[in-house]
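Subject line: Sequence and fold of a protein, written as structure tokens
Enclosed: The protein record, placed directly beneath this head.
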Amino acid sequence: VVKRMHQVQKSRKTDEYFALNVEFHDILVRAARNNALMANYRGVVNQLDLYRRATISRSVENIPLSTSEHEEIVNAVAARDEALAERLMTEHVLVSRQRLQASLKPSASL
């Protein structure tokens, strides 16, 4: 999925990137094999869907940053470095929230 994200980020096709972004997170949650996490994740995804789309479509320049963060998470999981994976996922969530908030602010030109 991350390889496809790298390909899509070059084209700046936000709808395709959004679909891959959702797929990436779904794979991680399913891999955890934790039903409570899955249920909470699904609830959050449903609530934030439009906001996540807005973040990606309004801030195309963030796509490479997000892809890089995803790649780092995959590498940590592949290396079975739980502490690093947890830290990277937490940072990704916090930074993504900051990007979301920034994308929703009215632009100075309005």
Summary: The mean pLDDT is 88.
